[in-house]
Amino acid sequence: MLIAGPDTRVVELRVHGVQGTTPQTLVDAVAAVDVAGDGLGRIVRPADRLRRPAPGPVLQTEGRPIPRVVEGYLWGGMTSGGVAKATWALLFPFSIANVAHWMLPPVPERNLPAHLLGIGLRSLLRVFALLLTALLVAQISVVSMDLLAAQCLRPGTACLTSIPADVRTFPWFRTFLGLLPIVVVISVMRRVSHVDWRIERKELAEAEDQEKQPASGLPGAHVATDPDTPALRSLHVVAALAVTSLIALGGPLKQLTASGQMGVAITIAWVVALVFVGLSVLGVLLLDDPTGGAPHRGGRWLRAALGRTPRRVLLALSVLLVLTTLALQEQLPLRVPGADVTVQVVALLMAFVLVLFGLLLVPAALLARKSWTSLPRELRPWAGGWFAAPVLAIGGLLGGGFGAGIALPVRKALGDQLQLPVGYSYITLLWGVAGALALLSMFAVASFTGAVRWRAFRKGKEWAREASLLHSGRMRDLRLATRAWWWARWERNHGHHMILIIASVLVVGAVLATLLRVQNVPLPGWTVPFSAFGVFVLGLLAVSLLRAVYLAARQPESGRRLGIIADIAQFWPREAHPIVPPCYALKVVPELVSRVQDHLRDPGTRVVLCGHSQGSLLVAVAAARLLEELPPHDRERIGLLTAGSQLQWAYPRAFPAVVPHASLARLAGGLDGRWRSLCRGTDPLGGAVMTWRRQVFDGMLLGVGYRPDGSEGALAPALRGPTGALVLGGDHWLPDPQRGPFPGRRWRSGVSAHSDYTSDPEWDRAVAIAAGLLDVDAPESPSLPFARRPETRSRDALGGS
């Protein structure tokens, strides 16, 4: 540990979690001002009455008070706020497919079968993502071309009577009106895929352009920009335009018939559209090969074929194809059969790709199993490394549900005399069956959970023995904490099971509807209630989503609530699907690293990166990058503090190839004991990071975890801090409700759960340890004075007073 000199100071750089926050809350001040950043990535400090940056409270250590500077990095503006960012929620199915790519199991080194399976799985993911884009275009076509242009605006109908008959019969009017919304949506998607966050500092941007992939084995080493994203984006746009033309020309199975030269022109345009779709599918299959696409391998031709100029030519030809389709359709027919056929064909292809993906994922997970067999069960990947399959299934079914949910209200608004495609009856049946099974599953899970909890409390089973140590002598707090510990532990242990249940009920409904549709079986009478319930579910899904987007655009607070989804999904770069919001981690992490390096130019400064919830993942990746780049004498001046983190129970288990358990151990060893984690047993979203297999024996909290040298093993019994926290290894277990209140410190009453970790006085002590100014095993400090005396009397088994 470095010895603190007279010029020593500590910079505490905080990063918030999902939903964003205000600058004042982040730095614990009544006012805050920006001191760096570009407006999207803001670095703020507390401000005095003249709105000048003010120093933070001094940091008390065993020797003397140390000056402290509190800074905060705000990244919430990248995921919420404004109409544009609110509409990103409409791309949620695309984001799910992109996240599924990062959930794939790791590929063992020097294992050819695992390597080939990894290439195949990533290729199938990109094909599935391309089919999702085609499904969105087909569903928009059902609304714009079939319902609106072909049926509602047909001459002689009583729909939208404000439009005169002369306008309805005007050549190419209805065709243009049907194609316009589709082209606009495709243009918006292309625009979204071009949006990217620009890194503030020039040297950082140049470093990113080098596409240097670190191979250190630290957390987030593979989170980098994919050089194939521009080509992948162009292929999606080309496929979307080609599918648009294909629908207008009759669909993928049969073209429109016409006589003479018109028939020949339609045939040529139809074949060209099929060729463009085929080229797009072939392109996404080949692009995913990370070795074949390398410049020094046999994939040089692919890089050249999908360069900037060829992409522009291909895009121009696709636009020309749509214009040709418009010219060939002077008047739309009474119905547009191509829309219904395309939806069904794309849905069947998605089901086939999903089944093949799930089958290939089984041996890939089994081959990767050696990397986690030595870990305890609570640290192993969810579903044995097979979790990407159900997540991908949810993304596909939500994509189909969103489109059907929009079509049903539109038909209701235009008039019940309009007819939806036949396939939509089976979609409503799918969601009706899935909704009914979901209700039954929720009832079964709630009943079983309630019964287990009631039986446990009736028999006096102690679910949270750690809570009895944290709240010793405070029986009222113990009663509140015990119940909160139980619910938080249940949510952490079974949250992924709920996702599996959702995927299962959706798949069951999809299988039933698909079998009936493939065999062309008329829907029997017993399906009527399920179809009606499916209409309700789909309408509720669409209305809720659109209402959330509307409120997010009008009310910033609602935008931050909607940002929960975006904050989690947008951490991951564009890989499987390019039409997703930009990855904020590619901007946040380099700018955090740059800010820390700026502070470390002062030889007396020590920097502690502090992250809450999702921010803990960002600061962990930033700390890993700093360990790679800094010289040894500067590494000793950085520390890491995580609070309410998911770095043990969620991220290594959901993303075993990106944030594996071994990478966290390597990071802990590189920081040499300067990684501290604040955790509460009452927190349903955060948990322990540095320890596991905890147990209470003879009044002591024991466990296994990371040692300062990066090794793993049994730890010394937990030590009690001056504010009642138990420190086991690198984890600081906080009493919740807090002990106290303490004179001169901010107080928060009640159960805090996942919020306001900085209010606990243990925060300052953890910062001092992470800064290397205080030893964990130092003699126990005297307890801080209480503002009120703790209560020890109780009247029931749990100690409730």
From TrEMBL:
InterPro entries: AB_hydrolase_fold. Keywords: Membrane, Transmembrane, Transmembrane helix. Residues 788-801 have a biased composition (Basic and acidic residues). The keyword ATP-binding does not apply. Residues 777-801 are annotated as: Disordered. The chain crosses the membrane at residues 124-150, 170-189, 235-253, 265-287, 313-329, 341-366, 386-408, 428-452, 498-518, 530-553. SUPFAM superfamilies: alpha/beta-Hydrolases. This is Lipase (Class 3). It comes from Lentzea indica.
